[in-house]
Amino acid sequence: MKGQEWYQADTVAEEYEAKRFSRGGRLIDRREKQAVLDAIGPVADKDVLEVACGTGRFTVMLAERGANITGLDISGPMLQQGREKAQATGVDDHVEFMRGDAARLPFPDDHFDTVFAMRFFHLADTPAAFLAEMRRVSKEQVFFDTFNRFSTRSIYNWALPMGSRLYSRWEIDRLLDGAGLELTDANHDWLLPYGFYRKIPNELAASFRSLDTALGGTPLGEKLASVSYWNTHV
Questions:
Q1: Domain 4-233 belongs to what topology?
Q2: Global pTM?
């Protein structure tokens, strides 16, 4: 995995959400959470696995809505942040945080109703292996997001210390075929890359987001979107 040592550092875990989801990054947080909720639908009493759960912002959100959810991550400090968040919101009885490798998920086949991963595949060195494991332990649904190759993310990606893996639609189709997953629906968003929004105040970001959304609703906007949300079924 790209940046694995960096990701597991204590200081990174402590500052992760403040750096990414303050200022204009609040818009990103809201959109990503809505994408997860739209894809999974009602979650009460569902058994859900979140791969690469990080600090648990999705894990806790779904637990608050009644899911029985397991959050798995390779970073101990990130998981500790998630445990503290779950305890603070009173949902720790609905959540289990586990340290583990996404390439070898420690669960039997068809163990969960839904398996999802956010902000994960752009760091994956063997995406086919990871997706196959997600498919193996899910009996109904697999949901994930990617950064897109033919988008403004390509320009932004050039300047990132770790870079990101970018995907074309052809590569996604090949991954889904290889994992035995069928595409239910896909949503494409964010003409402007995430890094741009994180650099500007929330009030200013809202204006750019309105323009971004308007252009994104056109055929050209969909082709140039920097992020895609892939909802698939087994």
A1: Rossmann fold (3.40.50)
A2: 0.90
